[in-house]
């Protein structure tokens, strides 16, 4: 139930392996909202999905979701990332990434602790029920000189 409404939610967890690169876009038509999920402790994981989705479904709303929130403050994870000259993605970075791709929302969650998990699905549903207004078109006239 979201905002007092009973909702039926259908989810497709598309495979990330290269073997499925040609099949995955077949699941995109009729999609109401994409949850682009990436690991907060694997910075390269963010770069995987947006180009494909923007190519195949450019007008579909996106909610950007940072996962593994429980590991962002985990010292062992931080040290492993530091050894590879990386660091966990911080909330402000996630907000900036969401803005860059035009996502309707940026959220973080942990499947392990369940923190933020219900919010992810509630906000995805809200993105469908209350879509953002389309960008305003310029009201200025166009002039063609030939």
From TrEMBL:
- Which biological process annotations from GO are given for this protein? small GTPase-mediated signal transduction
Question: Which InterPro entries does its entry note?
Answer: P-loop_NTPase, Small_GTP-bd, Small_GTPase, Small_GTPase_Rho
Q: Which UniProt keywords apply?
A: GTP-binding, Membrane, Methylation, Nucleotide-binding
UniProt-listed Pfam families: Ras
Q: Which GO terms describe its molecular function?
A: GTP binding; GTPase activity
Q: Which PROSITE patterns match?
A: RAB, RAS, RHO
Q: Give Gene Ontology CC terms.
A: membrane
Q: Where in the cell is it found?
A: Membrane
List the Gene3D superfamilies.
P-loop containing nucleotide triphosphate hydrolases
Q: What is this protein called?
A: Uncharacterized protein
Organism expressing this protein natively: Antrodiella citrinella
What lineage does UniProt assign to this protein's organism?
Eukaryota, Fungi, Dikarya, Basidiomycota, Agaricomycotina
């Amino acid at each position: 139930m979201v905002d007092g409404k009973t909702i039926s939610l259908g989810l497709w967890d598309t495979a990330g392996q290269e073997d499925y690169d040609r099949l995955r876009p077949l699941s995109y038509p009729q999609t109401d909202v994409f949850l682009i999920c990436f690991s907060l402790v694997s910075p390269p994981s963010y770069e995987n999905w947006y180009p494909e989705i923007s190519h195949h479904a450019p007008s579909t709303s996106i909610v950007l979701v940072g996962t593994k929130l429980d590991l962002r403050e985990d010292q062992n994870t931080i040290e492993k990332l530091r050894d590879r000259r990386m660091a966990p993605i911080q909330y402000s970075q996630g907000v900036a990434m969401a803005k860059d791709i035009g996502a309707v929302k940026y959220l973080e969650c942990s499947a392990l602790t369940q923190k933020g998990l219900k919010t992810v699905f509630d906000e995805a549903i809200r993105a469908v029920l209350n879509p953002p207004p389309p960008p305003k078109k310029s009201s200025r006239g166009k002039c063609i000189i030939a």
